[in-house]
Design goal:
Blueprint: E1 3-4, E2 7-8, E3 26-27, E4 36-37, H1 40-45, E5 55-61, H2 69-82, E6 86-90, E7 97-101, E8 107-111, E9 122-126, E10 134-138, E11 144-149, E12 156-162, H3 170-186, E13 192-198, H4 225-236, E14 239-241, E15 256-257, E16 264-265, E17 268-273
């Protein structure tokens, strides 16, 4: 099975697809108490619930999905336009946890703040084609959401992440990565693992220091603090940062653009289990 995808976060709120990788098909649970199960017994007995074809994966900082139905309509239109099957979504600004069926038949799962404040928030979109392969999901926090998909040969665990900004204090960053680490420890050992979202992380292009973790095609020469933390995490859990593997023009590597258009950075990423990184293929 082949996976493709990428993310975009820019001032016009438009998404661009790009590099990504190969995966299997079924979303799965992480943690324990708040697991939501979607009839896994039926899923396993019904062959149509297996993901069989290549899937397109991406991540998008939408900067809000809560203000009006037009935002959800835009999400439905964009995912259909780009043929996205799995989309990690950050900054939904939707509180609490819920599920929404979009106009295109896809499923949106949201994990937001429990105090009702409309900040942060992460979500995951599943296309109509693969939403029935969902086994279960865990709304961990307003920054983390984990799901599990069922595949014919091997299941897929997907984690959507929205990291603190580069300017956040060290304790907030440390607490976030400790929680992310706890989530990964709970993932089924033999699943293919995908990690996608907005990490506010600039990654070095010096792949000799990080064998297996990244390629040489990062937009940036040096990592910022968030980038170093993401690299350490990926090295610990044997993950590869997909957007650094494929050669593209720099103009196509950026995922965030400043309002004045003068600064472009690559801070949104799709990562995959290193053992499966050869399954990734670029869209562009």
């Amino acid at each position: 099975m082949k996976v493709r995808g990428q993310s975009r976060k820019d001032s016009s709120n438009r998404m661009r697809t790009g590099n990504t990788r190969n995966n299997s098909n079924r979303l799965s649970v992480i943690c324990s108490s708040s697991v939501t199960s979607l009839n896994p017994a039926l899923s396993k007995s019904n062959p149509c619930n297996f993901i069989k074809d290549s899937i397109s994966i991406g991540t998008w900082n939408v900067r809000s999905l809560e203000s009006s139905s037009s935002k959800l309509y835009e999400l439905s239109e964009v995912t259909s336009q780009y043929g996205i099957d799995i989309l990690g979504i950050t900054e939904t600004h939707r509180p609490f946890s819920d599920e929404i069926v979009l106009d295109n038949g896809g499923l949106l799962i949201n994990s937001g703040r429990t105090d009702g404040i409309r900040r942060q928030g992460v979500g995951l979109y599943l296309s109509k084609k693969i939403k029935n392969s969902l086994i279960s999901y865990v709304p961990v926090s307003e920054r983390l959401l984990s799901i599990r998909l069922h595949s014919k040969h091997i299941n897929i665990s997907v984690v959507v992440a929205y990291a603190p900004t580069e300017d956040a204090d060290d304790k907030e960053k440390a607490d976030y990565y400790q929680q992310l680490n706890s989530v990964f420890i709970e993932l089924p050992k033999h699943d293919i693992k995908l990690l996608c979202g907005d990490f506010n992380a600039r990654i070095t292009s010096d792949n000799q220091l990080w064998p297996g973790v990244l390629g040489s095609q990062s937009l940036h020469t040096l990592s910022n603090d968030n980038g170093k933390r993401l690299l350490d995490f990926c090295a610990l859990h044997r993950m590869t940062i997909g957007g650094t593997l494929f050669q593209h023009r720099d103009i196509h590597k950026g995922t965030w653009k400043s309002p004045d258009g003068r600064t472009v950075t690559q801070i949104d990423h799709v990562c995959i289990s290193t053992d499966c990184d050869s399954a990734l293929i670029p869209l562009l």
